[in-house]
Amino acid sequence: MIKPLDVAAGSVLVTALVLGLVVPPDAVQGDLQRIMYVHVPSAWLAYLSFGLTLVFGVAYLRTRRIRWDHLAGASAEVGVVFTGLALVTGSIWGKPVWGVWWTWDARLVLTAVMFFVYLGYLALRRAFEDPEVRARRASVYGIVAVAQIPLVHFSVVWWRGLHQPPTVLRPGDPQIDGPLLAALLAAVFAFTVVYAALVSRRAEVARLEDLAAALPADGAVAGAGISAPPIVGGGR
Amino acid sequence: MIRHIRVLLAAHLRDERRAGEVGLVIIPFGLVALLVIPMAVGIDTPLLDRIGPGLFWAVLVLFGTVVTQRQSATEGDARRDLFTLLGVDPAARFAAAALAGTILLTVFAVVVGSVTMVLYDPTIPGAAWLALIVPLACAGIAMVGTLAAAVAGGLGTRSSLAPLLVVPISVPILLAAAQATEGLRAGAGILRWILLLAVVDVVLALAGVLTARPLEES
Amino acid sequence: MSDWGWVALAFAIVYGTLGAYTAALMRRAARLRRGVER
Question: Out of B155, B167, B169, whose CB is closest to A144?
Fold first, then answer.
């Protein structure tokens, strides 16, 4: 079932892909800098999904409508995908630039911590079958986790503050303008539309899963195969 | 409310005195970790001096989850329901559990910290500041642990889930405490890190108190 | 590996993952819908 949102997402994504490949290369990093067109949008979505997971969780707690919890869980799952992609593309970008797969750059560390917060949140959701209990617990943990994120940010940035690699070589910070900026913004926009489409689908799956779980079990219930023996003759 | 907190806190500490789990099991576990790490990384004295304090904080954060989860495990569902029936404010329950956790973790920290000094022999000028840093850090870890136990409560699998819930959001506490200690050694400013610890504690306390009632089974 | 090699790798992983995830979601939804409508 293809919905208009899916078509929109697909088209903008293809546009972004093409733009990322055809715009001129960066003056300093050359073609390698094109990784920015997938890394930055992924990172942006990682943070957006995170924030929205909190918003949806709060909406659930205030309205107690399970639809908000479906959205929260969907946002978290889509968010963990984008966070993983941000980490991987950050690594891939860093290897040829710095020669190592991982640097303890503040943003990478922050993204990694966020990745694990997401994993914990999703594991928590998986642990509860009852939708109401799951929604309540997940919403509360979401609030606690997201409330900590600014503090994680400060602690990591202060920690790494003395050790930033030279600006010109930091992925994500090249001086860009003109067509490169346009390509970047197009990619960010495209990924955001994709996020909306994916969350919509994932929330629908969650709704269906709750429906399926609430159905009475098919097939034999234990003991159903045994029937009482026919009574022959009189009683004992 | 204060009275409830005092009574519950006393109950938690009595539980620990009876079961002795922190003193007899978790602290030794922490100590054994300190013993085993040099076996893995080498016993080079300057190396141990460098990594000692950091390792202490890492052990505190990682093993602290065992302390806070054990504490909530002893509470049990029946007792929790009883408190609800008696009209005990869930926020009071959070406060008491967090306070008990802070006390137990501080004891853990003092014992494990002393052994760290012995085994790793770090030089820490101005170590008196630790008297402020340690309780602040322990309070934060205790509150995260109490929140995690509340959110993951009622599960058989909670023992494997809680550490994953706790450790990532404990990063500010770990970094602040470790960097404050490094600051002491380098003679650099530690005020920002102590301030961060205080802010983390306030945020966590607010979160714990405000979410206590919504979390209650209706 | 050439610069374009790294770029291709990054793009392939990102667009490939997004595509695979979308396909998996669509499959899961279809299967659930069949089950619920039974």
Answer: B169
Give the Cα-Cα-Cα angle A69, B200, B110 (nearest 5 degrees). Answer: 120
Q: Indicate the range of A56-60, A152-156, A169-173, C34-38 predicted with least confidence.
A: A169-173
Contact between chains at C29 and A95 (C-beta distance less than 8 A): no
Domain that holds residue B173: 2-215
Domain boundaries, chain C: 1-38
What is the tens place of the pLDDT at every residue in A184-214?
A: 999 999 999 999 999 999 999 999 999 888 8
Secondary structure of chain B: what % helix, strand, coil (to 5)? 85, 0, 15
Choose the mutation target among B65, B164, B171 for the interface with A, i.e. most A CBs under 10 Å.
B171
User: Touch between chain B and chain C (3+ CB pairs, < 8 Å)?
Assistant: no
Which has more confidence, B75 or A110? A110
User: Are A208 and C32 inside 8 Å of each other by CB?
Assistant: yes
Indicate whether this complex's ipTM tops 0.90: yes
Chain B nearest-CA distance from A115, in A, is 9
Q: How many Cβ atoms are within 10 Å of B162's Cβ, its own excluded?
A: 26
Q: Which residues pair with A26 in a beta bridge?
A: A30
- Whole-angstrom Cα distance, residue A29 to residue A174? 8
Query: pLDDT of B80-102, one tens digit each?
Result: 777 777 888 888 889 999 999 99
